[in-house]
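Reviewers of the previous submission asked for a worked example of the structure-prediction workflow described in the proposal, so we include one complete record here. The input consisted solely of the amino acid sequence. No template or homolog information was supplied to the procedure at any stage.
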Amino acid sequence: MLNAGVIAVQGDVAEHAEAIERAADRHGESCTVETIRSSGTVPDCDLLLVPGGESTTISRLLAEEGIDEEIEAFAAAGKPMLATCAGLIVASSDPKDDRVSALDILDVSVDRNAFGRQKDSFETRLDVAGLGEPFPAVFIRAPTIDSVGDGVEVLASVDGRPVAVRQDNVLGTSFHPELTDDSRIHGLAFFD
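From that input alone, the workflow returned the following structure tokens.
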């Protein structure tokens, strides 16, 4: 039985938990999902998800609760992790915003809200390396990845801008995979 953790200080927590459960079932795995709002739980997790929300708020709450260092240790231990939208910004090495305390677990620089404001949100069928069919990606006030380090693999791009990357055990997306019924991104991050 795998123990999955979803950081629950902000964002689509329930939707991600359901996507993890669907992905686990599709891969023949048994999984329980815990929501994490304080320190002490991350070290017991087998896989971890940092959802979207507002990156300055997420990074502040992670630091206040002492979860930030646990996430950094989790990633360093090589355990599978997924960071989406604002979670990607927080996981980056360079969020290009002094208000965001970067976890520095993905060697990327990120431009917040690069695709525009809420009214500029969009959906697209996205070709993602490792997935056979296009993924229905939902972009809401989404960041783009401006640059990637040597050890970072670009999995998907929109108009030449990376929107999904993997570095070792950490997968990051600019979009919200939890807002569809398609759990393949969660499967790619945790079970493939």
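The chain has a mean pLDDT of 94. We consider this example representative of the routine output the project will generate in years two and three.
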